[in-house]
Amino acid sequence: MKMMSGAAMVVEALKDVGVTHLFGYPGGAVLDIYDALFAQETIKHVLVRHEQAAAHMADGYARATGKTGAVLVTSGPGATNTITGIATAFMDSIPMVILSGQVPSMHIGEDAFQECDMVGVSRPVVKHSFLVKKAEDIPMAIAKAFYIANSGRPGPVVVDLPKDIVNVQEQHPYVFPADVTMRSYNPTVKGHSKQINKAVKSMLKAKRPVIYVGGGAIAAEASQYVTQLAEKLHAPVTSTLMGLGAFPSTHEQFVGMLGMHGTLEANKTMHNSDCIIALGARFDDRVTNNVDKFCPHADIIHVDIDPASISKIVNAHVPVVGSVDKVTLQMLTALADKELEDQAEKLEDWWKQINSWRAKKCLDYPQETQVIKPQRVIEALYKHTNGEAYVSSDVGQHQMFAALYYPFAKPRRWINSGGLGTMGFGLPAAMGVQFAHPEACSVVVTGDGSIQMNIQELSTCLQYGLPVKIISLNNRALGMVRQWQDMIYKGRHSHSYMDSMPDFVALAEAYGHIGIKVDKLDDLDAAMERCFAEKNRLVFMDIAVDQNEHVYPMQIKYGAMDDMRLSKTERT
Amino acid sequence: MRRIISVLMENAPGALSRIVGVFSQRGYNVDSLCVAPTDDESLSRLTIITQGTDKVIEQITKQVNKLIDVLKVVELTDGAHVERELMLIKVATRTELARSEVKRNVDIFRARILDVTVNNYTIEITGTSEKLTAFADVMAQCAEITEAARTGVVGLARGDKALRP
Predict the structure, then answer these.
(1) Which of A29, A82, A163, A361 is 20 to 30 A from A523 via CA?
(2) For A50-70, b where at least 16 C-beta lie within 10 A, e where not — what string?
(3) Which domain holds residue B53?
């Protein structure tokens, strides 16, 4: 049996669960753990500039790989700075483990220096948490934390480590548990066969079916089965903001994203459907619009690994608890012996109707020659990255433009804070992606507001040579806030503009990177080309876009799913 | 509608705060809450009295069940069950008449006097919440209530049904 200090046990356990990258920031309570990290090379530690960014990096890493992101921070402010990052991961069900230092056990509750009740502060935004009380418990706590984080409905788990138990002076026997079982935690992954049969019957009966895919399909790595199911049924597929890429956006059956800024055809298809097959989606308020008017004709099949998500907002006619991969595979098996030759014929009228909505071309926008339209930038980005980039996004108009104008053909390529809507998420997330896939093209689509919420990480990018590409849609305003103020507050732009914008090119250069300013449409393509030719350098593209552009389509408040504004002057 | 929800959970630090957290975070009511270890000391049993529509109660049970420390959740009011609550009540009895009235009602309600002083009785009573409330009302009429403490409801399903790990 190996004898080691609590600190060494932390590092050893992280190795044993397969951690490759640890995003963190040292401080008093975790100095022993940092000393143990110094003596090894298996785990790459990434020194961030702010702990919030450490959590977002681990999050981006997790979203791009499906592996659990790992964070190490000190007690007190180190721990509380991660809260926004933890809440972001919690809302989007991202597997993450946060190791936080804590003051020595005997000083807990004494308001000691840098003391904060991290387990208490984080409680509403974690899947679970541990306050480890004995060094011997460290391996099991870490093993359980990683198991919980990345099983069932994934989520963040906090492990709070008091300084005395990681003390380097005392040696303890180290045993890593061979496997973790918990009597109180056994998530259901396989769907109940009776429910599967009911669901299959319902989808075969449907004349106007639609598959509504969410982030759960990505978490479960279910893309292949979802695609097979859709093709088998000839059903149109729509996706939530979180589900983009689970079903190829380039597929002819894809009708686009649904919801508040969904496409006309997606929302129309949902509203007129007689059978909604929800796969790992949770009927979020940004999807349903007014729940009372939500899809009045549809039978709802709701597949979700979290029973609490089923019938929470909208009543499910056929609830199926299970992971999307297992359940869709079960559905495919149940469909295998069914006659489906006439399915295409059966849905002909339905597709005719859908194609008539598509013909409205709701994503068309006025082609200007002078000002740069933000949509145009995303289209250029798509072209210059061959549609293959990992696109991380911040939150606001640019996020919606990226979601609508960059079709994702594969899962885990679209990295954004969907649930919490965290500005400042994009850059650190793209850095996490780049650590996970060093050879890949990792892009951030951001805006002049969001980028300034974690801009200090430009320094981290230089330290680790991360060639992240920053595409900043600079409209000299908080675009989404401004849009709502235009629409609802008669154009009173209360505190939504910034007339003290920094020179982003000079800023990027000050951090040791390349900055490119684009303010003419004619220069856009050449600038993009220059940007993506820089394989080994970070490039910050500061692109001046139309300040007055709005994101459309947009659902009309209190309306049904398909009550939408299509432009500043048209509505459905 | 009043519901009784029974929860079997790990007798672990922080488990209770997580349950209470679900109620406060999601805006559910707690009328009473009672918690103690079970015959198996590694487990705690918690009984919550709450109000809500079927939809709300369904969400409460699901959200509580989702907590990692929770093994099982049942709604006792779903079926036949027994429930009991205990109250300790101290009444000031300043007159001879008050003392005899209190004593008489203690007998009628099958309560027990635990402590007697010249001016006070401390009484224990067990029963359904309604019985306890009725007793407190009677006490208020014949004497002056100095203080009262109620445990909150505990309950078990009738027959073979049991909440076991």
Answers:
(1) A361
(2) bbbbbbbbbbbbbbbbbbbbb
(3) 2-79
